[in-house]
């Protein structure tokens, strides 16, 4: 692992869950001399300053980005391009410009044209989050043990990549490097499809006439409640993801629907062996996720009072 | 609420997650003079006795059910009928016969014909569970604050219904009464569809060529991992549910697919407003589920270390 990096001045563009968590993580590890912040609303800027995960708040993106050695754009994907355009004139030679957007080809497309000569543009995406948003949602531990994917464009200076890598490591992450196109395909299946499916099933359940909303809520512990967490995520963020990762998402949706049609057929024709087969095959993957430290072992995600303790013990193994 | 009930002798047919949890819950509340147990395998019977949630283990269902005042069948749905046939000759006059199966019309169909004159048959379904199974998976608190649905058939004696209701209340549940047919429709959307969709998406992710299994596992914290919990549930149980609640499940799958086609279209045509609309509409339901005490408020189901504490505080509100 590389030595702990230090930046004189870091600028956060967007002060919500991810921007906020980055601010907290930088403070925890002492990675920045000064953290300047920009957000759209005066309320968010004031709150971020009050919480203390930034040292100064600015009314424009350009003011916040001025003199920064590291600029991290943490807005929804649809706003990355306009923020980049706004800060283009003030970006310092030698600075690293990165982002945390959930898609990467669109970032290369939208931010790329606004990167001045001598600025190191390295798109990134921390694979960590919660269903909450806004400046109060962030916390220093969000990235601990999670992965951060960097998707450098051709010609990226190895030293800049290494420094940004060390930065994310110091924030608690493991770092992977891959092509933007591959990132978007991988994320389409591990993140975008799950969210879209969750939104869809919650929508379907809300629209029924024969089953009331109150029944759905009362009996949700039988499975449904798990989907409502993802379906409570920020609508702007997810609209932007869907609009900006269209092809991979449609590809994954196509495969999902095909598989679902086969499953539906097995149910219709009472093919117990096919059902048993699929339901057995899918078990192993959860064990691997737990072994990889990407989820806790406790049943019900540890939500059962007595099992919460067992969870922590399991986690330590 | 009715007075705490007491049964001289309770028989549990099936000693897995639900049978075991019932045993623990009865011991906790002192609801039975003696709990006899039956399970298919000698290992399960021995383990249940060792853990102590039953007082005696029996090699046949009939032996275990003999002289019982309350018999609860806790096997997978596909085995309920054969267990009922086996115990039919020994069931005591005046005894209550119930079950915990996840579908109810099929139970009326399969168990109904084996109920002797004078035995009170009241199908039931506790809306509580985890992704684990077997005799070690159970715990006394499983039913606390969850709902138990009873689906009495026409002609059920009110006193028997009241006694079984009081039993579940004493095990920690809230009790609802509804028609078996309505139960199966409600559960198709709140439980069966979520599990089927979870199994399906995990299957889709496992079959990709362009994204490796190891990538799916590493980056699963971005959404996918939530589905793997449901998809790690017992294959036999879920095969039996699919085989025995066909029509309602196919009806819900049809609606889900229709909605997904519309959503897919919105993504294909870049209809940001339609996407934003759906993604906004689905948020409220999670709040209602939390307010109803059916899930915890903490982000990420409380899996983030620092947020676990906040979760408990929220829960108390
Ligand atoms: N949430 C996750 O789980 C997650 C995980 C990994 C990556 N990401 C990515 O991280 C980024 C931020 O997500 P988040 O969850 O931190 O969102 P968030 O909590 O909603 O915060 C977004 C921030 O961006 C600002 N903003 C929004 N629209 C803007 C605009 N048009 N121009 C300038 N600023 C704008 C907001 O300002 P105001 O507060 O003033 O509105 C807010 O400070 C997104 O690109 C997302 O794809 C999210
Ligand atoms: N899991 C949930 O979340 C949940 C929630 C509500 C209701 N339910 C319902 O509760 C019932 C039991 O589920 P569970 O989770 O407790 O299952 P489980 O942990 O797998 O236990 C099933 C028990 O039934 C026995 N059994 C299995 N097949 C049998 C057969 N053909 N004949 C006789 N006994 C047999 C098993 O014996 P061996 O151990 O010897 O194999 C075991 O003791 C199912 O009807 C299910 O639909 C489940």
Q: Helices and strands of chain A: which structural class?
A: alpha/beta
Q: Indicate the proportion of strand residues of chain A.
A: 5-15%
- Cα-atom Rg of chain A, whole angstroms? 21 Å
Largest sheet of chain A: 6 strands, parallel
What is the total number of structural domains of chain A?
A: 2
Average pLDDT metric of chain A: 94
CATH top level class name of the largest domain in chain A? Alpha Beta
Fourth-tier CATH superfamily name of the largest domain in chain A: NAD(P)-binding Rossmann-like Domain
Q: Ions, cofactors, ligands: which are bound?
A: NADP nicotinamide-adenine-dinucleotide phosphate
Assign the CATH architecture of the largest domain in chain A: 3-Layer(aba) Sandwich
Keywords, separated by commas or semicolons:
prephenate dehydrogenase (NAD+) activity (chains A, B); three-stranded mixed sheet; binds NADP nicotinamide-adenine-dinucleotide phosphate; 14 helices; elongated; about 10% strand; Rossmann fold; alpha/beta; 6-phosphogluconate dehydrogenase C-terminal fold; homodimer; six-stranded parallel sheet; 9 strands; about 325 residues; amino-acid biosynthesis (chains A, B); 6-PGluconate_DH-like_C_sf (chains A, B)
Describe the structure in brief.
Chains A, B: Residues 8-297 form the Prephenate/arogenate dehydrogenase domain. The structure is a homodimer of 317-residue chains. Chain A is built from 14 helices and 9 strands.
